[in-house]
From TrEMBL:
Name of the protein: O-antigen/teichoic acid export membrane protein
Residue ranges crossing the lipid bilayer per the database entry: 12-32, 38-61, 82-108, 114-135, 142-164, 170-195, 216-239, 254-270, 291-313, 328-350, 362-381, 387-406
Highest taxon listed in the record's lineage: Bacteria
Organism: Kushneria sinocarnis
Keywords, ordered alphabetically: Cell membrane, Membrane, Transmembrane, Transmembrane helix
CDD domains: MATE_Wzx_like
Compartment(s) of residence: Cell membrane
Record Pfam families: Polysacc_synt
GO cellular component terms, semicolon-separated: plasma membrane
Length: 423
């Protein structure tokens, strides 16, 4: 039963990622060419800010709520309480985000210049709050997330080709892309009702306060991680030109389309590790050993292939306007291996085994280092400076997490498939 359910979830996520890769692949080259590097840079800049805001409203609930639901998946009353507490908490955070965006557009010149497009960033964040992916992860019904996300994204494809024809249609492209999150959230709410996984549950301010307290360490780690994974596009938009921002945005989208295939599988693997850990540490470690060997080998090969075929990929996907993107893609290629393996180290090993402090400290420290280095690198060297800084940061984090796991005896026990000791 366990293997069967996990296989269904992995298949659902592979379909989801396949769709999320193929659908943007249809529109990404078109938008890059039609909008041009400068406006494509604006689009990437604005939606990078939207991703930051989404991380703020997520507040680590995608891990904490998922873990709690997975551990209580046979208790409908408990799941309902977790659901309403989490949704209420995220709605409070959404209000903070919308106020913050409005004030930023009013007083920050770099954002005031793209104020109309920034409105749709808020729309995207609101839609993300409506999609309770953490609920479906916890009850291991990830097909609902797949259908909700792909159905919404599929509606955007014909609309982009129908209404976006020149650089002046930037705001239309932003509106279409942001609306998919609202559609996805609505479909997901229908699935929540269909599965009858929850009932109404009264919650108190104390429940919301406890949810914030429990998610805070993961929130800090997630924000820190985002500072060096997503800040590059934002910082380029602040201190460099829109063209340089567009070059980096286009290059990173190609790299990220591949990396996210492995990150999204974590939606199935994370709750599974927690379930196995409750049953047997040896079983959890044996599962992690197989996952690590297979994923590391595969991501190494993909990183090498992306490096070697970067010139061809640039020509086919982006065109002559983005000829300077080839070396940027090559610098970013190793991130496919580094990021996916670091996720195994952090989300599947440190966090489930109780090493929250290390999980939080490493990315937090490196986020500060990354930002300090990024400002001059982005200012003087543009997209290439941003890419080099990001690669350096991810490399240091990879080795820091590996050393922490070795020193605490976790990595050795995982590779042997043996039981380890909680922190």
């Amino acid at each position: 039963m366990i293997n069967s359910q996990l296989a269904k979830n992995v298949f659902s996520l592979l379909v989801l990622q396949g769709g999320q890769y193929i659908l943007p692949l249809i529109t990404f080259p078109y938008l890059a060419r039609v909008l041009g590097p400068a406006n494509f840079g604006v689009l990437g800049f604005v939606f990078a800010i939207a991703q930051y805001c989404t991380l703020f409203t997520d507040y680590g609930f995608n891990l904490t709520a998922t873990k709690q639901i997975a551990e209580n998946r046979d208790d409908k009353q408990k799941i309902s309480h977790i659901f309403w507490t989490t949704m209420t908490s995220k709605t409070v955070l959404l209000g903070v985000v919308l106020v913050g965006l409005a004030l930023s557009v009013a007083f920050v010149p770099a954002l005031s210049d793209v104020g109309l497009v920034m409105i749709f960033a808020g729309v995207q964040v609101a839609g993300s709050v409506m999609l309770p992916a953490w609920l479906f992860q916890g009850i291991e019904r990830l097909w609902a997330v797949t259908v909700s996300s792909l159905a919404a994204r599929a509606t955007a494809v014909p609309l982009i080709f129908m209404f976006v024809h020149n650089p002046e249609d930037l705001w239309i492209a932003a509106m279409i892309q942001s609306s998919t999150s609202i559609i996805s959230g609505i479909i997901a709410c229908i699935f929540v009702r269909h599965y009858r996984a929850i009932a109404f549950a009264a919650i108190s301010p104390a429940d919301v306060k406890e949810a914030f307290r429990d998610g805070f360490p993961i929130f800090i780690a997630t924000i820190a991680i985002s500072l060096y994974t997503m800040s590059t596009t934002v910082m380029l938009g602040m201190v460099s030109t829109h063209t340089q921002t567009g070059l980096f945005n286009a290059s990173d989208k190609i790299r990220n389309a591949i990396t996210s295939a492995f990150l999204v599988l974590g939606n199935a693997f994370f709750p599974r590790v927690n379930v196995l850990l409750k049953e047997s540490e040896a079983r959890a470690n044996a599962f992690l050993r197989k996952l690590m060997i297979g994923q590391c080998a595969l991501t190494l090969l993909i990183s090498l292939a992306l490096f070697l075929f970067a010139p061809l990929i640039t020509e086919l996907a982006l065109g002559d306007q983005y000829a300077n993107a080839t070396p940027i893609i090559q610098v970013l290629a190793p991130l496919i291996f580094l990021v996916s393996t670091s996720m195994i180290f952090g989300n599947y090993m440190l966090l489930p085994y109780g090493y929250r402090r290390i999980y939080t400290q490493v990315p937090a420290i490196m986020a500060v280092v990354h930002l300090v280095a990024l400002v001059p690198m982005a200012h003087y060297y543009g997209a290439m400076g941003g890419a080099i800084t990001l690669l350096t940061t991810e490399t240091v984090i990879f080795f820091a997490l590996a050393v922490a796991l070795i020193r605490n005896g976790i990595l050795g026990n995982v590779m042997r498939g043996e039981a380890t000791t909680h922190a």
